[in-house]
Fold this protein.
Amino acid sequence: MMKGKSILITGGTGSFGRRFIRRLLKDFSQVRKIIVFSRDEFKQFQMQKEFPENEYPQLRFFLGDIRDKDRLYRAFEGVDYVVHAAALKQVPILEYNPIEAVKTNILGAQNIIEAAIDKGVKKVIALSTDKAVNPVNLYGATKLAMEKLLVSANAYAGAKETCFSVVRYGNVVGSRGSVIPFFKELLSQGSKELPITDERMTRFWITFDDAIELVLFALKEALGGEVFVPYIPSMKILDLAKAMCPDCRLRKIGIRPGEKIHETLVSEDEARHTIKVSAKNKTYFVILPEFNFEGKSLRKWKGEKLPEGFFYRSDRNDWWLSVGELRELVERIELER
């Protein structure tokens, strides 16, 4: 799949992008070119030191912003695959700066679509979030709009080869801005108290390794218009607090602006056109588009149809992380840093 191909990652200096690129360099040595596209020149400088040119000649760095369509046209020249990971993501900040989220997460996605079609990119896989399902915050709403744009882009492409698909998953364990680093910082400062937004809160959790496997699966299998969702475990925020500091006091601070108590990865309405598939000991839900696209056939998809009334929500999951498993996850994150 990757032999002789050129792949570009938007937001390539972010938490996911760095690890995805590290995986490509390790396991896909026959990739012709890997392009790191991001707007943060300091992070690019840091990555260049981590991956020196004399050791990784296939790695390229391209400074730019997905808001700039002309820059994307230049960057996409000769690119086979695009993994779109660039986004503004911090929920409370985006609630107060909504137009900035629209410019990057929605208009930036449209720029990627147009550049990919015009430059002959073969596949675009965009990263989405559980917050895009029945969104209550602006970040989720922009991601929902991004998903709709990417799916409909297959019609926009017409008979051209370019196909667009989406991967959607929950919170990434240990990612920048997530609760584990926040709790760790408080504990390192000697705190014996952890703030809890709501003791009922649950979340889907996925490791970086599993998120990468999901993207690689989508790159290999996508025909155009699918939304790929992994079967992943849920966790309770109270259990995470117990795992990280069993003796700490817990202080309820209330839900932040735009925050949910539970998150959904597949809604009941989506489940009616979703199938469940297995590959390499992993299980995925594939949400199929509700209309056909010129030159793109989804007939190959065969899997288990979901029962009537099914929905996939973090508090209704049948796979839960225990306090012990959460403790092991936290310890593993420290070892991987």
Observations:
- The longest strand covers residues 123-129.
- The mean pLDDT is 93.
